[in-house]
């Protein structure tokens, strides 16, 4: 076994495969042995005669009996795909074949490998291998990795170091490994966000919405998509349910409010309000009726909301939504008109003042 490396059973299927964990590469080791060495590699799924002086079988890489060996057709298909994108001069067939072996050893089927190479087709194979390896380090399997990249192909354009930094930052927000894996699967584009964008969202929750640190962590666990939204939209959504509906912080967190569009929240709330089924609490937090909980209003399907909460028909709700949209449009026009009148008045006052002088 190469110095500085140890073989351990891989946590990724199939279970018969093994992974190379590079703890601390020894001096003089060829940088090409691990595609991530230049950025502090922790994992390389690659073992080839060129890099290690051993064949795949002698290095301990046994082909799963249930999976066919990489076919020449796959190599040719990928090579032609790269040629179409003018990348044929960047990598030879021999090196490309070894990279395809690496993807296979990670647990990807031939069909999945072709799907990977169709994403960001102009991207260099070496970059693709490094990003995929880094995602597997987060605990994803081949299927989850492919799904995540299909949702957000732009992740492939990031460096392994950038992915590690994003993952470390999310961990500092108390996103545990399981939650972090779920974030990657559900919202992989979060990894493409800037530090400032993530910080801005966290600050809004802490400073503008006055959530506790634990509550912010729970929101990120339950609704990681909030990191993709504009901070002012999140603040407005919170202010609406807090001031307009009288919902407290704890109930907001448990309701998964930030998964629901604000238009849907307002439609359901105001509909109930006009039916006499919801009241804004007074200064003492009291109402004359028992309000349904926020999660009962927004976490159910529209059909269940109408039957169990509003006790109304779909037709009534559709008519109401159209009328409410008209009201809001007219209200926006009135506000714009008032702002214009106010600006004109200030301009007249300024002109009169200049003439008087």
Automatic annotation (TrEMBL):
InterPro entries: MTERF, MTERF_sf. Pfam families: mTERF. GO terms for cellular component: mitochondrion. Residues 327-342 have a biased composition (Acidic residues). Coiled coil: none annotated. Gene3D superfamilies: Transcription termination factor 3, mitochondrial. Keywords: Mitochondrion, Repeat, RNA-binding, rRNA processing, Transit peptide. Signal peptide: none annotated. It is found in: Mitochondrion. GO terms for molecular function: RNA binding. The keyword Transcription regulation does not apply. Belongs to the mTERF family. Heterodimer with NSUN4; this interaction may be required for NSUN4 recruitment to the mitochondrial large ribosomal subunit. This is Transcription termination factor 4, mitochondrial. It comes from Chelydra serpentina.
């Amino acid at each position: 076994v190469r110095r500085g490396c140890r073989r351990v059973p891989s946590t990724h299927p199939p279970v018969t495969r093994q992974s190379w964990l590079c703890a601390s590469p020894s001096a003089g080791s060829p940088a090409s042995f691990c595609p991530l060495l230049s950025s502090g590699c922790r994992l390389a799924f690659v073992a080839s005669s060129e890099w290690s002086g051993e064949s795949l079988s002698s290095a301990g890489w046994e082909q799963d009996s249930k999976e066919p060996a990489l076919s020449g057709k796959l190599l040719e298909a990928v090579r032609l795909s790269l040629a179409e994108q003018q990348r044929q001069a960047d990598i030879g067939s021999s090196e490309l074949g070894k990279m395809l072996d690496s993807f296979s050893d990670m647990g990807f089927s031939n069909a999945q490998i072709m799907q990977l190479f169709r994403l960001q087709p102009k991207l260099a194979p070496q970059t693709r291998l490094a990003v995929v390896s880094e995602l597997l380090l987060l605990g994803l399997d081949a299927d989850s990795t492919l799904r995540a990249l299909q949702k957000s192909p732009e992740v492939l354009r990031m460096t392994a170091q950038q992915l590690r930094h994003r993952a470390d930052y999310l961990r500092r927000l108390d996103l545990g490994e399981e939650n972090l894996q779920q974030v990657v699967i559900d919202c992989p584009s979060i990894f493409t966000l800037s530090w400032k964008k993530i910080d801005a969202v966290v600050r809004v929750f802490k400073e503008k919405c006055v959530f506790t640190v634990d509550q912010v962590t729970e929101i990120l666990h339950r609704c990681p998509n909030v990191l993709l939204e504009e901070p002012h939209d999140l603040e407005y959504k919170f202010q609406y349910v807090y001031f307009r509906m009288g919902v407290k912080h704890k109930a907001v967190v448990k309701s998964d409010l930030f998964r629901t569009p604000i238009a849907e929240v307002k439609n359901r709330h105001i509909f109930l309000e006009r039916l006499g089924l919801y009241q804004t609490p007074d200064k003492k937090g009291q109402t004359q009726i028992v309000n349904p909980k926020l999660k009962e209003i927004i976490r159910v399907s529209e059909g269940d909301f109408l039957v169990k909460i509003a006790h109304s028909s779909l037709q009534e709700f559709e008519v109401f939504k159209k009328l409410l949209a008209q009201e809001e449009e007219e209200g926006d026009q009135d506000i714009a008109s008032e702002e214009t009148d106010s600006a004109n008045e200030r301009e007249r006052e300024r002109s009169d003042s200049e003439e008087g002088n």
